């Protein structure tokens, strides 16, 4: 889907309430001081979050499954970051063991049916004590939007999004909070911080309706987890 609508998604995510005023700011807050750090960004898309990480002094390798997204990210960042095409369901063979200080996975892991292989790979790539910062759709929100299936099951959810004037069907997996925590622990991570963020105050003037929703409902879930030493 993102390959076929890469440019439309890039325009949408640049200033959409959920991305620009909610997720990116919360991810950057959990990432902390990234100056001089080697950052692996999963699902880097067209590079909007990458640019913020680079601005803060990070050395970023961005991975995305879609070649068109990688092309757009390279156009945006030039030589300021490195981007490669990679499928997160496969081993990250281009990333050496213990070569990464921080992994950032913004709104990408919920597209994977099985987290165990990629979490094992991320643990391998990180230095001891390195961190993983991830954001996903909130399990409670997806449970409600999907018609309240069995909460404890992992469920494939399909929604229709509107990228500008284009309706697009998007499928992803919702899983219970307990499974997210269990998979992280089994992969050797210690959960350091859990956030259910609020949007930036500037959204109230820019889009009052979105501000009300993002301020009052569970929409995204963010986790900072540290690789065991």
TrEMBL record:
Origin: domain of life: Bacteria
GO MF, one example: S-adenosylmethionine-dependent methyltransferase activity
EC number: 2.1.1.-
InterPro entries for this protein: Methyltransf_11, SAM-dependent_MTases_sf
GO terms classed as biological process: methylation
Enzyme class name: transferase
Cross-referenced PANTHER family: TRANS-ACONITATE 2-METHYLTRANSFERASE, TRANS-ACONITATE 2-METHYLTRANSFERASE-RELATED
Protein known as: Ubiquinone/menaquinone biosynthesis methyltransferase
Native organism: Saccharopolyspora erythraea (strain ATCC 11635 / DSM 40517 / JCM 4748 / NBRC 13426 / NCIMB 8594 / NRRL 2338)
Lineage: Bacteria, Bacillati, Actinomycetota, Actinomycetes, Pseudonocardiales
